[in-house]
From TrEMBL:
GO terms for cellular component: plasma membrane. It is a multi-pass membrane protein. Keywords: Cell membrane, Membrane, Transmembrane, Transmembrane helix, Transport. InterPro entries: MetI-like, MetI-like_sf. The keyword Protein transport does not apply. Gene3D superfamilies: MetI-like. It is found in: Cell membrane. One of its GO terms (biological process) is transmembrane transport. This is Carbohydrate ABC transporter permease. Residues 75-277 form the ABC transmembrane type-1 domain. The chain crosses the membrane at residues 12-35, 79-100, 112-132, 183-208, 259-278. Belongs to the binding-protein-dependent transport system permease family.
């Protein structure tokens, strides 16, 4: 019979665990409040009251939001820039980073120096706005996509990941008659799925949370992203910012606070649902056993 020795908790351990539990509760309580208020029936809602669970469940706030043209337009705009922007970001970042790993590529050192330069120095807001204006992208959703197709940090990280892949895999593929594009698509990219999944999540979250650039480049409220509309609801305390409701929607029957909390929930849920599907790809165990000596 074997006995497993258990470590006796010290006073420091109790203080440490208690502090961690307290910090966790402080972080969780706002989410509980937002969730509960958003599902609280307008008829029983009491302002400034903390809700662990709704006294009476209702989807009135969600029905109102999803019946307004402004909210649906902002949701559509956000989904568009997130899907298109993420796909283009992945294509540009991974192809560019793969090219930078080839020492025989003409102009490689110049391009790599330019990438590192942008990592250290930033042109600023005014030159960026002038560039977008001269390109004719003001009040266009593409103004939120084209300037952000890649960034220096992502390129350097992806480049380092590609350089960690065994060169023997590419050499063997080329011996079998595979072209450079074929090597990238059939060998390198499948082995890079952990990096693809991780950066897909990074890019998607970045586009989904687009706020500052949208605030600068988009003056037409019909082109607003979801985050700009939520700012109007939460910060400016203007529930009329969602516009007129469709059939069956009545803003007067729904408290402003429940509308705000419902909008926050609708902005959080999509990313929370995507994350579990990409989490399993974060481990780099896909490379184990790919090369045998």
């Amino acid at each position: 019979m074997s006995f497993v020795a258990t470590k006796k908790l010290t006073a420091f351990d109790w203080v440490n665990y208690s502090l961690l539990v307290f910090i966790s509760l402080v972080c969780i309580f706002p989410f509980i409040y937002v969730f509960s208020v958003s599902f609280t029936d307008p008829e029983v809602y009491v302002p400034l009251k903390f809700y662990f669970f709704p006294d009476q469940w209702s989807l009135a706030a969600y029905k109102y939001l999803l019946s307004t043209n402004s909210f649906l337009n902002s949701l559509q705009n956000t989904v568009f820039i997130t899907l298109i922007g993420t796909v283009l970001n992945i294509i540009v970042s991974f192809t560019f980073a793969y090219a930078l790993t080839k020492k025989t590529m003409p102009g490689r050192n110049i391009m790599l120096s330019a990438v590192i330069f942008t990592l250290v120095f930033n042109a600023g807001i005014v030159p960026g706005y002038i560039l977008i204006k001269q390109l004719g992208l003001i009040n266009s959703l593409w103004s939120l996509i084209w300037p952000s197709l890649t960034n220096a940090w992502s390129l350097i990280v992806i480049k380092s990941f590609f350089e960690s892949l065994p060169a023997e895999l590419e050499d063997s593929a080329k011996i079998d008659g595979c072209s450079d594009l074929g090597v990238f698509l059939k060998i390198v990219l499948p082995l890079s799925m952990p990096a693809v999944a991780a950066f897909t999540l990074f890019f998607a979250v970045s586009y989904w949370n687009t706020y500052f650039n949208a605030l600068i480049y988009l003056s037409d409220s019909k082109k607003w992203t979801l985050q700009v509309l939520i700012k109007t609801l939460v910060i400016d305390s203007d529930s009329n910012g969602v516009g007129q409701a469709g059939a069956g929607g009545d803003a007067r029957a729904v408290p402003q606070e429940t509308i705000r909390m419902a909008s926050i929930m609708l902005a959080m849920v999509p990313i929370l649902l995507v994350y579990p599907f990409l989490q399993k790809h974060f481990a780099k165990g896909v490379m184990l056993g790919s090369v045998k000596g």
